[in-house]
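Lab notebook, page 48
Experiment: co-folding of the full assembly
Goal: obtain a model of how the components sit together before planning crosslinking
Operator: M.T.
Materials (sequences as entered):
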Amino acid sequence: MRLRAPEAHRSNAVHAGAWWLWALGLAVAASRTTNPLLLGLVVGVAGYVVAARRTDAPWARSYGAFLKLGLAVLVVRVLFSTLLGSPLPGTHVLVTLPEVPLPEWARGVRIGGRVTAEQLVFALYDGAKLAAMLVCVGAANALADPARLLKSLPGALYEAGVAVVVAMTFAPNLVADVARLRTARRLRGRPTGGVRAVLGIGLPVLEGALERSVAVAASMDARGYGRTAAVPPAVRHTTTALTLGGLLGVCAGTYGLLAVEGAGYGVPLLAGGVLAALAGLWLGGRRTPRTRYRPDRWGPRTWLVAGSGIAVAALVVWASAGPAGEALRPGVTPLEAPRLPLPPALAVLVGLLPAFVAPVPKDR
Amino acid sequence: MIRFENVTVTYEGSAAPTVRDVDLTVPEGELVLLVGPSGVGKSTLLGAVSGLVPHFTGGTLRGRVTVGGRDTRTHRPRELADLVGTVGQDPSAHFVTDVVEDELAYGMESLGLAPEVMRRRVEETLDLLGLADLRDRPLATLSGGQRQRVAIGSVLTPHPKVLVLDEPTSALDPAAAEEVLAVLQRLVHDLGTTVLMAEHRLERVVQYADRVVLLREPGAPPVAGAPAEVMRVSPVHPPVVALSRLAGWDPPALTVREARRLAGPLRERLASRTPDPGAADGPPVPAGTVPPARSAPGAARVRRTGPGRSWWPFGRAGGGRPAPGDTAPDTARTAPDAAGTAPDAARVDGLVVTRGRVEALRGVTLGVRPGEAVALMGRNGAGKSTLLGALVGMVAPTSGRVLVAGRTPHRTPPAELVREVGLVPQEPRDLLYADTVAAECAAADADAGAGPGACRALVARLLPGVPHDTHPRDLSEGERLALALAVVLTGRPGLLLLDEPTRGLDYAAKARLVRVLRRLAAEGHAIVMATHDVELAAELAHRVVVLADGEVVADGPTHEVVVSSPAFAPQVAKVLAPQPWLTVAQVEAAL
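Observation: model returned without errors.
Model output:
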């Protein structure tokens, strides 16, 4: 009984980064397979966790939008495959569309023509993979508070983070503005749809957005945004040197890694650059006197959430590289019914863990 | 604590300075109230304290403003952030984060306070302002009063020495306003915070002030003094001061308590008289006049008045003949059988509106007759705006029925609906799109299908003396409201709805609005207004409907509902209770 998930409040909240790790883990798993049964399982796992642990917050409603987007991707992928054909050899011709004659220079491009069952199934698998990954991102969006994620940024980047948070609270305000002005249009007896309505509303909405941003800027200024602490010149110069040098190191290191002859010095340069840049960021943070109010902590439940995602990714990647990897990519030539390979399926089910360990939102 | 030395502020592009040669000292620990009509530069003076004027707004500030010894010329607003807390007129424009608790902590984070200190102060402030239940709520989901409290809380947490508030209670219901004022009182008394605030609703705040600073007109030097001294001469004053002047009490009473002590002789003089129902319930309508407003076919327009009665239609549909049995004043309001055929300008039966899991309205039944002014009152979030929305077809009923002039609003095309019902929203600016008043009028004529010049004539009546090429944005709050009202009235709707019409209006603009609305009611428009302003309800409404949690908890003639309620009684009623006087005008007419 003591292991039951507690009610969520701020102190025990799962770190937003952990939700993203979990979701990206699922997405990595989805990217390694085209087996529709496994993909369905991934989507199901993500959906179940969202249903069990999402709040009533505005961002939590984005999950539905991502589901629709996934479906749209699937449909578009199949549609393109139907219209543009596919180099995939296939024997089961379903239908032959009239082919558009193209000039000589456009050889290799085909519009219309044969549509085979193989190519459709392949497009379906491929689209499903993309859709499943999108749904995983949607799940992270629905479960993790974006503002809290930005608050986890290092001090030197905090102000950029605040700017993004303000921009994000802007979007819902903009939506509310549009709704309000549409209402006002209705009150004046004008139609609320159509191009003219959009134009009529657009200008006042932009005006309102501009006014609001000025007001928010005034409020932020009056509340101490942008106060800087006095930092000795030596520290300031060191910060600049470290950041610049670090970034240069990263560039050179990356080049070294990619170029043929530089493999030897690539890795150490890259590592040194990253370290220097991080040190620069840390030093730069001393210029802002800000402190942080109740930052999210990585508690055991957060570790379990993040860990389950990493475990799913690792296990599925391992399975796909192993001898049973073929089952993760069911063949289309010849067509065969996909089977559900048991070990990867069990691995994906590990992703359900957050639905049991993450704290339960209050109003459930 | 705050010193203005010879301060003159001129905004860019304006010919004359907004405030001129202001010399003013606010000592530490005082609550100073800035009063005056709209447009005299109250907000400018407040902005100068936090340094936002002129660092943020632009313009030229001559002279010197010092706060706690820091000169605002050399200190930017962010460098005054630990000293001055500012809350502007619109709390939602103040918010930086998206959750209540983060918002309270934001200012402290900027100042770099230690995490333990921040945590403690947030908890204290949550309790101080009664926000503990809302701590995890997204700011977007809060009601107006809650937002105002969060905004005040968010500047309180850094423990500023000076608090600057621009109309902190205008948007609040009476109870929430008292809560906010009690908090301010506590800050001043217990923590020695200096408070400088501007407020139009003097009846709420004047008794809390240690000193009042009066700005008579733009550019005039401020008059500072004890509240009673300043109120003796002030052109803006609460009803209790008007009553004092009428009764010849000097110095004027500022609180209901003071006034009651002085009012013994006045009550005796008034004991033998009864309030003129016309003055109580708005001007009487001559029987038989045909109002120009369109309304339900066959709506009866003949009514009689009686002492303590609201308007009462004699007739049923199709004629003005008296119907037998129409003597009990309460039957029509509750008679469901009359729905559809009743001569109501609007009728709501068993209306239920649910939003998500929240029941915004629960079984509301209400009828509004032509020529009747109804005030909808109740705390923030009680469902007033939702009810207005349902009447104007913006909100579809979950169950129950809404009929306006015999039609169902949410199924009626907007173009036709504007001729039956018009709503002036809380923010009248939303209704205005055009660049000039004249263009706005032309658009309104086209929208409502009225003849050219219809709106223009209304503007000339409601808003005399405003050039037609003025941009709506340059109008004052009161003028903008009048323009929006003219736009809405162009369709000559039988039912006129107003959402918080007196928000941000000074007493003069309010008096003008009352005159206009009275005339409209006399012309046969049914008026329903959602308001927190008890004085407005007392002046204008024939009937008051009190909503709580989406249900009608009181419905009756204004004086009956209002006199018995501690929250909704106007000041005059409180002073002269148990006699049924509501407004100074009534008392004046009777004396």
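Interpretation: The two ends of chain A are 19 Å apart (CA to CA).
Next step: discuss with group before ordering constructs.
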